[in-house]
Design goal:
two-stranded antiparallel sheet, 219 residues, 15% helix, alpha+beta, disordered N terminus, single chain, 8-stranded antiparallel beta barrel
Length: 219
């Protein structure tokens, strides 16, 4: 598996589908929301931003309510960069990924230290359930005026289908920030400092498994 800095498992093909904002992701969800991530290293409390990332927050909370993150692990830890989890069991079995969601990286939020964002494949709209917490200010993960567009992505896919390939002259679309750690950043940094090694196809796996025991909403 490629390293996270090579943008998470580059895919060879790109498929663009139209997305519509679900009826559930409306102003009625624009209330303050928090979740507690209980890990084997301690608790992390995250404030969510439904006004800025309504689709992403809705998708995340649906996974939380379904218990989809319980007893999963942080399977990728890169010091001074990020910690990523929510997709594998301690036995390294892949958990059901769910449906892809639109990328909301253009919501004005930046990948600053302590922010929580969606992991994804190379395709712009390929986030499902895995998330990461930034250990530093990672401006190269932000959406910007130089970012690729879905139209750029579609053109490149069409060129590839014709046997042509020309690298895009723009930056990645970015990674969608949808929350921020407000308690337990010391726990995040402790996880970020964990000793790692290559385990099977995982190049940055903590030597000691770090378990996400539960994720639950806070009222």
């Amino acid at each position: 598996m490629m390293t996270f800095k090579r943008l998470l498992l580059f895919a060879a093909s790109i498929s663009i589908l139209p997305f519509a904002i679900p009826a559930s992701a409306t102003s009625e969800d624009n209330e303050e929301a928090h979740v507690r991530i209980t890990t084997s290293k301690g608790d992390i409390v995250v404030e969510l931003y439904p006004e800025k990332a309504p689709i992403t927050v809705r998708n995340f909370l649906e996974s939380v309510e379904a218990g989809a993150y319980d007893n999963s692990i942080f399977h990728r830890v890169i010091s001074n960069f990020m910690i990523q989890g929510g997709g594998y069991t301690p036995e390294l079995e892949e958990l059901p990924a769910g449906e892809t969601i639109p990328n909301e990286a253009d919501n004005g939020l930046r990948n600053l230290k302590g922010t929580v964002a969606m992991a994804r494949l190379n395709e712009i709209d390929s986030a499902r359930r895995q998330f990461f917490i930034n250990l530093a200010d990672n401006a190269h993960l932000d959406h910007s005026a130089d970012s690729c567009t879905r139209e750029d992505e579609q053109k490149q896919a069409q060129a590839r289908q014709r046997g042509l390939y020309k690298p895009l002259g723009c930056r990645t679309f970015g990674y969608a920030v949808f929350g921020k750690v407000i308690e337990g950043m010391d726990v995040v940094e402790q996880i970020g400092a964990a000793e790692t090694a290559r385990v099977d196809r995982f190049p940055n796996m903590p030597v000691e498994p770090i378990v996400i025991e539960t994720v639950e909403p806070l009222k």
